[in-house]
Amino acid sequence: MVRLVIITLLVCFSHKLLGQNNKINAGKFEISIGGGAVIPVGKFASTSTTGFEQTVFEKGSDQQYDIGFFSKENHGHAKRGGDMNLEINFLTRRFWVHGLSIGQSSNAVRLELANNYFSNVQGPAELRFHEDFNLQNISYQLGYRFKPNNGSFEFRPFQRVGFSQLTFPFYILESINFPGVTVIHEGDRPRLNSLYFETGILSTILLSKKFDLGFNLSYRFADFDYIMYQRIVPGGSTTLIVPDQVNFRAIMTGFRLAYKL
Predict the structure, then answer these.
(1) CA 244 – CA 247 distance, rounded (Å)
(2) Would you call the peptide bond into 179 cis, given omega within 30 degrees of 0 as the criterion?
(3) Is 10 in contact with 142 (CB distance < 8 Å)?
(4) pTM listed for this prediction
(5) Which residues of 242-251 are buried (b: 16+ CB within 10 A; e: fewer)?
(6) For the residues 142-160, what does the mean pLDDT come to?
(7) Residue in 70, 88, 85 with CA at minimum distance from that of residue 31
(8) Which helix (H) or strand (E) holds 45?
(9) What is the pLDDT of residues 96-136, one digit of tens each?
(10) In the prediction, which pLDDT does 147 show?
(11) Which residues on adjacent β-strands are paired with residue 254?
(12) Annotated domain spans of the chain
């Protein structure tokens, strides 16, 4: 809400400075497709192994164990990824934009530093596989358009609020001393759900009366809580309840092509 208020004040102030009094594509629908890079920042980008060793509980009892696992709560180890998106917007007569945004992105996981940690613990192991951070989102978009000096360029600050899903961050940790002996998540791997927020600005250049080319720059975030149930296979072992969280934080930058109906 604070971000939305700030954006509103900024665009209104810019409107007065620029002396805008024309109507830009008033009362029209717009559809666009786009893509670009998703650059992890903050906790999502961190490659520290601090916090990998934590106290967890045995399933079905109060027994506690100190174990090391690939914790994402403060260190996501995410690589730069890609994004694709679709927007359907309504351009009002008062320069406001109301729309629906649908997108998906994918970020692979860095394994090098995590493997350095696991190879030096008691019972050394190595990560053989880790699911990418595959995120889908759908959100309502509110934006505001203004044109400096009524030229062919347009700027559009925007705020998106919606819903997102993330693939379960499943991984396989295999023993170095006993190949084939692995630590895995036991049970289903449901998609993780979270509210989704994105704040950014779009700058466009008019190509024709119907088409424009735009450049997006935005910051997006979502928090995904989940629980792993870890055990050793084959042979079975104590099942441990391991809570964790993925703090998705990223900058998205890319291009889009829009068509006005």
Answers:
(1) 10
(2) no
(3) no
(4) 0.85
(5) bebbbbbbbb
(6) 90
(7) 88
(8) helix 42-45
(9) 999 999 999 999 999 999 999 999 988 899 999 999 999 99
(10) 84
(11) 36, 216
(12) 33-85+100-139+155-260
